[in-house]
Model the fold of this input.
Amino acid sequence: MTPAERIEDLRRQIRHHEERYYIHNAPEISDAEFDALMQELQRLETEHPDLVRSDSPTRRVGGRVEFGFASVEHAEPMLSLDNAFSEEELRAFDDRVRRGLGSGAPADVEYVAELKIDGASIALTYEHGTLVRGATRGDGSRGEDVTSNLRTVRAIPLRLPADAPERVEIRGEVFLPRKAFERTNAERQEAGEPAFANPRNAAAGALRNLDPGLVAQRGLSAFFYQLVGGNTVITHSETLERMKQWSLPVEPHWQVCSGVERLVAFCREWGERRRTLPFDTDGVVIKVNNLADRQVLGATTKWPRWATAFKFPAEQMTTRLRRIEVNVGRTGAVTPFAVLEPVFIAGSTVSMATLHNVEDLTRKDIREGDWVIVEKAGDVIPRVVGPVLSRRPPESAPWQMPTVCPRCGAQLHRPDNEVVWRCENNSCPARLQRGLEHFAARGAMNIEGLGESLIAQLIAGGLVTDYADLYSLDTSSIASLTATSLRSDGREIQRRVGDKNAEKVVAQITRSLSNDLWRLIYGLGIRHVGERAAQVLAEGFGSMQALEAATVEQLQSIPEVGPVLAESVRSWLDEPRNHQLIQRLRKKGVRMEMPPEARQTRAAPGPLSGKTYVITGTLLSMTREEATKAIEELGGRVSSSVSKKTTAAVVGAEAGSKADKARELGVPILDETAFQALVGSADTR
Ligand code: IVH
Done:
């Protein structure tokens, strides 16, 4: 066998096993055997770079995404679904369908019932059998090009078989299986980060991460339910069959149901059975099966008239509210939560629940000692719906928000037009604790072993008063601390950290010195700066120094950075103690720059700094690449989509919708001559 043949053979085998594993849930070989195939392919491709192809299974993870995601227009809008919250509403939907189909409609319309996947919708484009693009739904007409992230999802085939149409768009849902979701949340909670409220948020968040390597680790999966273009079938059930033949994952429990009573039965059945599934479903999607009938029924601007989503009712239970406690977050936000008499709801025992905010709590007059209704809806974090007034104990009294911080005793404040109370003491140990937990979290500086209990010890022992102190810690001072851990029987045990563990933590702290810049920016815990915003800022500025010098306007010139985020970053940086913190971290050797190779594509400062151009149509004197280079060399940016923030659109011959959009938004238009004058045409040749 030649290397080329062996490579092809390996790719075929790997694809086969990925399909067995991710689509049929029936692996034929062990993980180790699979890894061995992958390693052999990897080795052969390294030895024969000319044989590398972009649809090889080794290429699922590509390079980092620069400058966020390009915006893409969907060929056909990605519509949402109308909802039915009861069997009555489901019957009303069936009535509307039959009326819409007119006098020829059968008494029992044929529907397909599918489980509604709680994830984020996506559209994949395959050309000549190869996955060329994957996009999010966005606002329905424009989404984001997240191809590099979707390629990491192993349930998504990079190739379709030879009988697939030349060009086809496939729509479906990317989601986190329950185990992966729970793992993600457990990790986040352990690290002091807020848990994702539901799998949908977790999946959507992962899709928009700028680092495909991180996305690959999340454990996303996918199911598909719609074909756009290249479809010659006449019913939806045939579409589902065909997609399955193409090795696309299709949720297998769908059913053809004739007449509304069968639908009702399906919804009742899955209302019960859904907990047996390895992923979360929040309802049943009901679709008219015959595609010609769909045409007759049509759509509103928001949803098709031939489909609806039956939502499973939220599960509620009544229990006793033992106490209302408050939690102090790292930004100082003080939020109440309910400590409950443990109660079993929707598959798990609940002993704590959110109470939203003080306003909500007082409006509903929820009191300690009350019997309360607790709900777990599509959202996984349980919440207190309200009190059962008829069972209120006579001695109860309205709950009072504490006026001082329960941890440091500082007066609490509530800024005008905000609902949240805050502890404004920057040295509050509760804030430092949460701040350090966030700083060390896996998604931030990723310091393994530095968890809640060790941080508490470090603070109590006075060893750490800010993040920079971490970098002065030595093995012996950590080793003599006592860490508290929870035994399986619920009892706490105290143990000396010991030399071995201390060494590990110190090694982790040292390793974190050379983290990517965005991890530091995120770890600082600036309000409104999430993982993604941190990545955007790191790539937009390239160094902490540049970020520190940025004005609000410059911050806002970065795509996706809005006024609230820009203000928040600026005012955080303006705080002298934060400035000092950065200085101290710098002195300790924490990396404050993007690596040079990642920065090559970044705009160097120049006369066009902070300006964004869109190039559309054909330029006669230069190629697109040359034009882009010319703009970037002068410090400007080139974006693929027009928005109100676009400085100007460079419009060549035969320009299409982008030029129209620019005119519509009042964005200045530069023709080729004006553009040459701007960049100095002599320089670009
Ligand atoms: S069909 C035009 N089928 O639910 C019809 N959607 O609440 C397009 N969803 O935006 C949607 N499972 O993201 C369809 N089996 C399923 C689905 C499903 C989940 C999502 C989808 C849609 C949202 C509407």
